Amino acid sequence: MIMWIEEGKKIKLDQKRWDERFKGKGFAFGKGPSPFLKKHIHLLQKGKILDIASGEGRNAIFLARQGFDVDAVDISGVGLKKAQKLAGEFGVKIHALLADLNTYQIEKEKYDLIANFYFLRRSLISQIKKGLRKGGRVIFETYILEQRNIGTEGPKDPKYFLKPNELLRLFKDFHVLYYREGIFKEGGRRKAVASLIAEKP
To answer: In the predicted model, what is the mean pLDDT of residues 36-46?
Structure first.
């Protein structure tokens, strides 16, 4: 079951675009989790988690398989339906929330972990902070500006790329447990990203 957070609202262009991206039989980004998430799962305490821009659910399902209680939010109903089907294949459950992340409101102090992969909406940062319980953690990874010079992956608009050390500054009031920024090779491809795991004091 998918919970409609914004039922009755006009369908956004973004929703149509991502529904189109996810409508095929295959998985646009694969079924496996982000390599960064998989490698650093030991830094993420179990509990209630929100996976932002969950898409077809590859990270949400991986976390559910590790024992997390997962809310997966995305603008694409097509993606979330595929995520729920994949969760069933692995014998786990996720709570699918269909919402426009331009207007979505994260519940205050609800989560032990919030995951944000390859999605950048700076206005959500303050909500991520408020949505975490004390001692809760955020895991965040997305493209930096250098990505435009090394590959075709990623958004076209420069506003969706992080500037140098921007992610670190955005969470300067948190206890940073891990941070990296640069060009890395993962899955046979080079990516320019910033990756962070930080704890709410």
So the answer is: 95
